[in-house]
Amino acid sequence: MLDQELKEQLGEYLKLLENNIVIKVSAGNDDVSQEMVSLINELAALSPKIIIKNETLPRTPSFSVNREGEDTGITFAGVPMGHEFTSLILALLQVSGRAPKIEPELVNRIKAIEGNYLFETYVSLSCHICPEVVQALNAISVLNPNITHTMIDGAVFTEEVESKGILAVPTVYLNGSFFESGRMTIEDIISRLGSKPDINELNKKEPFDVLVIGGGPAGVSAAIYAARKGIRVGIVAQRFGGQILDTLGIENFISVKYTEGPKLAANLEEHAKEYGIDIMKSYRVVNITK
Hints:
Blueprint: H1 4-14, E1 21-26, H2 31-44, E2 50-54, E3 62-67, E4 74-77, H3 85-96, H4 104-111, E5 117-123, H5 130-143, E6 147-153, H6 158-164, E7 171-174, E8 177-181, H7 186-192, H8 199-203, E9 210-213, H9 217-227, E10 233-237, E11 249-250, E12 259-260, H10 261-274, E13 278-281
Parallel strand pairs: 1-2, 4-6, 5-6, 9-10, 10-13
Antiparallel strand pairs: 1-3, 3-4, 5-7, 7-8, 11-12
Helix pairs in contact: 3-5, 9-10
């Protein structure tokens, strides 16, 4: 399934695996199962830290990615190629022990979530926003043992898609009931689970010289210009990136012929952090007083 160039690149990534991981495989005799088994065997051939075991999982074809001696809670139902291939590689690395790139405050909030949650995300392998949701839920599952997540390729499990009346992806179910459809960030998901930002942490912050409300391109630009003057700057945003998060192709950004909204938002955040700007996400300003 994987060409030689991709195998060489993956071999380098898989050197980053910190501990052994166990891939539990539930396969049948159908073509998708054989394709899935072929992919897993090719991955295992690239790293001695990948162990394969045959299991019977709730869905076939599917496979779960686990730490040795436990069911870690990440499952892929179908063959995660296309846009979801990155989701698979990140899952392998994170389950092996490499920490997800998530801010410490969010990590603490995720670990503090109580209760048992079974997430299922229906995707299309050609969907450009599905990986963001899949990767967010996978990371949450790695950090909290009471949360599990299954990515489901709707093209493989068509009966489920039809029975649930799913018309768009990604569509997320929680404990068997509809949860949400469309783009979601980690902040969005854990807030829905009752893990709200601690307002006391905001109250502990020193006053800002400039506080920008809104995390879209204009707000980030203003914040960076202010920070370059050496003053203390913060950004408050319900969704960092704003409306560009919902834009696939951007072709009118001067000097950049083409980019995608989520990529531009990630670049804006990285640029802002280089200037020490304090970014406060998942907050909505409802009132301003002098």
